Amino acid sequence: MEKAEFGKYFTNIFQDGFIMLSIGIGHDLGLFKVMCEAKEPISSEEVAKKLDLKESNTSFDKKWGFSPALFAMGMRSKAVKEAFKKDGPYGISYHDEHASEFLHWLNSYRALMCDETVDKKIIPLLDQQGVVSRLKSGIKVLDLGCGAGNHVTAMAQRFPKSTFIGLDYSEAGIKHGNKHKQEKGLTNVTFTQGDAHNLPDEWAESFDYVFVYDVLHDLPNPHKALGQIYKVLKKDGFFSLIELGFHSNPVDNADDKGAALYYAASTFICLQSSMSGEPHIGYGACWGRESIEKALLDANFKINGKSSLIEIDEEAFFLCTK
Ligand SMILES: C[S@@+](CC[C@H](N)C(=O)[O-])C[C@H]1O[C@@H](n2cnc3c(N)ncnc32)[C@H](O)[C@@H]1O
């Protein structure tokens, strides 16, 4: 790339970062909420008055929920820089004090998107493979790395005859999960703190369906976790995996601004988590669909035909059996 061209490219990144930060401020101040609630166009003066703020001139996409993540990432800057140092820690785990801000954001982001993701994207894909009829009749399900429990509680609501377990490493995640469970009055879901690398032996071959959403690339050893999923899945069980769908070779992502964003975000969150424990494999968010597919096959899973590998926006969906 020529110097001038690189200058333009870099300026673009610089500008986008600042725009994103300002969107985050608007989100946190409640500007979008006021604009969404307004029945007709509303002036910046009126918005400011409603929120008891000084007037500012802003206009944003009202459904945007990603921007406050920048703050959560910004708060980690110091710790991330330490982790880069040779004598610093390997990474930052989701147990760490710096993780709770990100989980808090993830919970609010998922809360915004969860029902649509489950109803319009996940359930139709599961239906194609016969999982929905089993969920309706009543089966045992594990959400591995459930985070704040948004997806598992949404599924538990929709399939009351099935029983669900949400497992996560993070205490903050489990607390959020139990809160969602209480708010929705659910009795068919339980949350437990645990490590995806070491699932209890008494769980062997006990789950009909295991789902893992946006977790595997965060783990210090995803290959070991795949072995554990294999262990706990019944012989006729299903395993669905949602991961980011970028390419494994960074060169193949070179023109993709979405991938650039995730490489950046991963530096603050996913890569930190995946480096935080032994053996520090460190795939991070852009592990990539080609390598993930290979890891699934190496773990002895069958990927149910080409049609089961379907992109959800930037995400890849894999439905597997033993
Ligand atoms: C990006 S979040 C995704 C959470 C949730 N599946 C969702 O989509 O909202 C990744 C989750 O993996 C969890 N996690 C990281 N390492 C783990 C481990 N060793 N065992 C279990 N969970 C882990 C984190 O605590 C975090 O909640």
Q: What does this 3D model show about the protein?
A:
The chain is globular. It has 2 domains: 3-60, no CATH class; 99-321, Vaccinia Virus protein VP39 (Rossmann fold, 3-Layer(aba) Sandwich). Helices cover 48% and strands 15% of the residues. The model is unreliable at 56-64 (pLDDT under 50). It has helices spanning 3-29, 31-37, 44-51, 69-74, 77-84, 99-128, 131-137, 150-158, 171-184, 222-232, 257-268, 270-275, 289-298; strands at 140-144, 163-168, 189-193, 207-213, 233-244, 302-303, 310-312, 315-321. Helix 6 (99-128) packs parallel to helix 8. With 322 residues, the protein is an alpha/beta fold. The protein has 13 helices and 8 strands. Residues 94, 106, 110, 145-147, 150-151, 168-170, 173, 195-197, 213-215, 218-219, 273 line the site of S-adenosylmethionine (SAM). S-adenosylmethionine is lined by residues 94, 106, 110, 145-147, 150-151, 168-170, 173, 195-197, 213-215, 218-219, 273.
Number of domains: 2
Order of helices and strands: HHHHHHHEHEHEEHEHHHEEE
Distance between the termini: 47 Å
Biggest beta-sheet profile: 8 strands, mixed
Stretches where pLDDT falls below 50 for ≥5 residues?
A: 56-64
Mean pLDDT: 87
Counting H and I runs of at least 4 residues, what is the number of helices? 13
- Classified by CATH, the class of the largest domain is Alpha Beta
Supply the CATH architecture of the largest domain. Answer: 3-Layer(aba) Sandwich
The number of strands is 8
Give the class from helix and strand content and strand pairing: alpha/beta
**CATH structural fold name of the largest domain:** Rossmann fold
Q: CATH H-level name of the largest domain... which superfamily? A: Vaccinia Virus protein VP39
Dominant shape: globular
**SS strand fraction:** 5-15%
Fraction of residues in H or I helices: 40-55%
Computed CA radius of gyration, to the nearest angstrom: 21 Å
